[in-house]
Amino acid sequence: MSDIKPKRREVFSVHCNHCRRTTNHRVLKSCIHTGSDDEQGFWWRTAYDMLECCGCNEVVLRRNHHFSEDPDNEITFFPPPASRWLPQWRWSLPVPINSLLAEVYTALQADSLSLAMMGTRAIIETAMVRKVGDHGTFRNNLQAMEVDGHIARVIAKFWKLHSMLEVLPPIALTVPMLDR
Ligand SMILES: [Zn+2]
């Protein structure tokens, strides 16, 4: 069952990704879906509110789901609230690394931490290949960086020991041929 309601006058305090803080949002449009299972005695209600930031006019969708057997409402925002923003210095990076960095931030935003970690590894490997050429494996590239004096021995040792680098697949090989 669906019920589309006209614009309401309520104002909610919600995080705005553009303003980067909690701001007042007005409701642009609302839609409520309800349902029930009479046999089991369950019911559910999902309200969708399209909210507009009163400061910058950015729009976000809030989904508020209530299930009769769960005392807590499940509230979700699309897009989800951002806690990290791409740094300005990204524009000083080579294009391929800049693109990978944007993907890492997108993965973090979506709480895809494994993907973010793999992306970070790809950034490191891409940077190494650009600097010392491709020596086949992450470990060899790292060694070349150390031999050429681009990184300190202690850092190379740390990265070699870091389990992340040992267990992840060679992500850099899956990245399209980059501007090397
Ligand atoms: Zn805003």
Structural class: alpha+beta
Shape: elongated
Sheet having the most strands: 6 strands, antiparallel
**Strand content of the residues, in percent?**
25-35%
Straight-line N-to-C gap: 56 Å
Structural overview:
The chain is an alpha+beta fold and 180 residues long. It folds into two domains: 2-78, no CATH class; 88-173, no CATH class. The chain is 33% helix and 29% strand. It contains five helices and six strands; from the N terminus they run ββββββααααα. Strands 1, 2, 3, 4, 5 and 6 form a six-stranded antiparallel beta sheet that branches. A hairpin with a 6-residue loop joins strand 5 and strand 6. Helix 1 (95-109) packs antiparallel against helix 2 (113-132), helix 2 crosses helix 3 (138-147) and helix 3 runs antiparallel to helix 4. The protein starts with a strand and ends in a 13-residue tail after the last helix. The model is unreliable at 167-180 (pLDDT under 50). Bound molecules: zinc ion. Zinc ion is lined by residues 16, 18-19, 23, 53, 55-56, 58.
Strand-helix topology:
Blueprint: E1 2-5, E2 11-16, E3 21-37, E4 42-53, E5 59-67, E6 74-78, H1 95-109, H2 113-132, H3 138-147, H4 153-161, H5 163-167
Antiparallel strand pairs: 1-3, 2-3, 3-4, 4-5, 5-6
Helix pairs in contact: 1-2, 2-3, 3-4
Give me a quick take on this structure:
The protein is of the alpha+beta class and 180 residues long.
List the defining traits of the structure above.
six-stranded antiparallel sheet; binds zinc ion; 180 residues; 5 helices; alpha+beta
